[in-house]
Amino acid sequence: MASYRREIHIERTPDEVWDLVGDPARLHDWFPIDNCVVEGNKRWIYLASGLKFEEEILVQDNAMHRFQYTIINNPIWKDHLGTIDVIDDQRGGSFLIYSTQGKPDVLALVTEGAAGAAIKKAKQILEATK
Q1: At residue 76, does pLDDT exceed 90?
Q2: Mean pLDDT, the chain, as a whole number?
Q3: Disulfide check for 57: which of 31, 41, 70, 82 has CB 3.0–4.6 Å away?
Q4: In contact, 54 and 74? CB cutoff 8 Å
Q5: CA distances from 65 to 1, 4, 50, 108 (A)
Q6: What are residue 61's DSSP bridge partners?
Q7: Distance CA 54, CA 22 (A)
Q8: Is 70 exceeded by the pLDDT of residue 117?
């Protein structure tokens, strides 16, 4: 099972970062997908290729700034767990951490690349409004 973690420092408070990345309906604002739809604890993400993934939201902890989800009802992804954490740097900024584990390993590697681009875009969005 592949596992990876991407992180980036953002010159915004944890609450400001969480307002963007902690809202499951705003994923398409910063992650390289076309759109997403949230209903209850389910989220569907739509890729430019036409692929659609169903996810189950496991944790959305606004106090801890943690979001966890798993891809479900998918014949390819197995044992998937995605985690987004926003950590206070104790200097007025934050660390945004995006990690995923799952199999097959090749899908985790593809997601790792997308997550790297996503956290850079989140930083760009958030620091541009400073």
Answers
A1: no
A2: 94
A3: 41
A4: yes
A5: 26, 19, 31, 23
A6: 66
A7: 18
A8: yes
Distance CA 105, CA 20 (A): 28
pLDDT reading at 81 higher than 80: yes
pLDDT at 55 over 90: yes
Could you write out the DSSP letters of every residue in 20-70? Answer: HHT-GGGHHHHSS-SEEEEETTEEEEE-TTS-EEEEEEEEEETTTTEEEEE
Q: What is the DSSP string of 85-124?
A: EEEE-SSS-EEEEEEEEEESHHHHHHHHHHHHHHHHHHHH
**CATH for the stretch 2-23+58-128:** 3.30.530.20
Residue 129 has pLDDT above 80, yes or no: no
